Each structure stands twice: as structure tokens, then as C-alpha cells.
Fold this protein.
Amino acid sequence: MGEYHIASSVEDALEKLSHCNGRAEIVAGGQTMMLLIRQGLVDPDLLVDISKIDEIRGIQDLGEYIEIGSATTYAEIKKNSIIKKEFGFYTDATSEISGPQVRNQGTIGGGLVYGDPALDTPPVLLTLDAELEIQNSQGCRRISLEDFFVDYYETAIEEGEILTKILIPILPQYSGGKYRSVTPRQGDYAIAGVCVRLTLDIDGVCTTARIGLTNGGDTPMRSRRAEKILEGSEIGEGTIEECINVLGEDLDLIGDVQTSKSYKEMVFKRIARQTIKEVKLELVGGV
């Protein structure tokens, strides 16, 4: 590794990136980057540390959106009163992230830019219809989180760009969600994770369904076809089973020495079924 630069601002970081001919990497919490460097998978000429930039840290209520700076740590998200109030199930999902050391250092932006399909929180943000603000030397652009994930460990971030903000729209009334995952041991990657977010109308009919999956394919993903099964229904047993069958068809799983493909599919279906029922039950009592 070559030069290490602690950026004082986003502009400072972009300036350093512009003079490095693509041999630079951004680091905030460093949880993923340090691992990649130790494994010899990356060897940057320049490492730009953005963790001290105040403008991309913290959480703000903007009225229609909650804005989270990309260098905000998981620990900060977990204890934030705004997030707890508006998106309690996102707060809960941060508890699934490894141990306290990782939560204290790892950042929301770092967890997104690598596009790791095994991370817990990106699928939760997918169910929240999150958008990202990305900055380069010419200005800013905004992209939906779903469009951000391109392929296995590949995202839409381009050379010379920095992810600066995550924007989450405030949920409508009678909305709620839950994230569930199954891991071999505490701190391991999840075998399967499912986040369900539902919005009901006054009659208990589902108007919006979102189902996000951890380790369901090459990227953090939604099961759009399964969502459509739930929307427009009162989410009875028959509808749930139809949804679960479709979700199983949407999975793109690979077996390994520890867990077979069929076992993973069974786990996904079981926790998806359980999560849908739990979210519906919580919401029906409030309608």
C-alpha cells in the first residue's frame, strides 16, 4: 500500500482521487478494505480515509426523508432515536452485524459500496426504498439502492466518486417490518436473511409489500414477484403460501460444504413465512 490520506472534506477526498489514475481506494470504517488488503486482493497506491468528514456523518430528519451520512457507523444507527422511531426494524437488523467491534467501526456506506450479498442491512434498506447520493468532481447524482447493486461485489459507484448520503423516505401510516436471519454461529455470515416490510390500508388490505433477501443471489435483492402476490390481498394463509412458493423460485442459491442448496431454500421459505405472518399480525392490531 502507498500513501494514506485523511480527508478533511468531500472536496478534499475527490481532489486526491482525481490525481491517482484509478489506483486509489476509499476507506471509512475499514472493516472490508483492511481484509481485502491483507488478503492481497487490492493494493492501492493511495488510501483516502473519509471517516473524519463531518458532512457525511450523522442522521437528520428532513421531513419526507431521513438522511444518513455514509460514514455513520452501525453503532450510531443502532442507538439513534430517529431511526428507532421511524424504522425500528432497521435498528434491530444492525444487531445482527458481527460483534461490537465491527458495529463500532463499520459504516453504512462501506456496507453498501462493495455489494456483498451476505450482509444483513442492505436488504433492509431495499425494503425501505432507500436512495443514495453520490458525489464526484462535477456534482451529485442520486440513484435508487436497487439500481445500485449490479452484480456479485459490483455496484454502480464509478471511479472518482464517493457515496455521501443514504436517503430513506418516511413510511406511510400502518407500515411495519421485521428482519430475520439464520447464522451458523454468532458473528458468521447469514445462511439466509429475509426482511419484510408491509403497508396496509384501513381495511387491512396490503397496499405495499417489500421483501429483501440476504444471500439469496449474487447481490442484495428483492423478491419482486413474491411482493406482488401480497399486494392487494388481506394476506391470508393461502396468499402467504403462494408468496413463499414464488419466493423460492426467485432464489439463485449455490450450495457449499456446510449447507446444501436445498437446505438454504428451506431456511429462506421458513423464515420468510414466519416474518410475513409476524409483520401482518403486528399491523392488523394497529389498523
